[in-house]
Amino acid sequence: MNKKVVELLNAQVNKEFFSAYLYLGISKFFTKQDLPGFASWYKVQAEEEQEHAMKFYEYLLDQDEDVTLEAIAEVKINLKDALDAAKEADKHEHYITDEIVKIMDAAVEAKDYRTQLLLDWFIKEQEEEEKNSKEMIAKIEMLGNDKKNLYLLDKELGGRKAD
Ligand code: MG
């Protein structure tokens, strides 16, 4: 495989695991806010991100390439409220989309059609992720960004702690 494509795919394994970590940080914030539905929604996102990381990981090994498991960066977010959290997630998904596109650019340049097929899936997935994060912002803005108003959305997102 093309060296640059391999390097970028390797880096993406780490970025997807960091995404999982970031979502876990957001989930934790909502647990502390007594909004378990939001917490559970973001925990599910964290699990999805681990699956993304593993797709890249498996792909590299399937191509007989190596995978470097680098340190996952610390999550340094200082969230004020639900809207702030939703915006943080949305910003991050746009960043990830940009990174996927960069790998696609390299794969196109290298005429690496197999990697392009893998990345097709991720480009579609990122469209979905951006749609979800944008919808979350819209819902919070419609309801009003305080806990009293977010209670119903919280129930819709994941049920109550006591169940
Ligand atoms: Mg992802």
Between the first and last Cα atoms, what is the distance in angstroms? 51 Å
Tell me the fraction of residues in β-strands, as a range.
Answer: under 5%
Query: Which small-molecule ligands are present, each listed once?
Result: magnesium ion
* Architecture per CATH nomenclature, i.e. the level-2 architecture: Up-down Bundle
* Fourth-tier CATH superfamily name: Ferritin, core subunit, four-helix bundle
The SSE string, one letter per element, is HHHHH
For the secondary structure, the number of strands is 0
Determine the fraction of residues in helical runs and give it as a percent range. Answer: over 70%
Gyration radius from CA atoms, angstroms: 17 Å
CATH class: Mainly Alpha
Q: What would you call the shape?
A: elongated
Mean pLDDT: 94
Whole-number tally of structural domains? 1
The total count of helices amounts to 5
CATH topology: Ferritin
Largest sheet: none
Which class best fits the helix and strand makeup? mainly alpha
Label this structure with key terms.
single chain, 163 residues, mainly alpha, Ferritin, 0% strand, binds magnesium ion
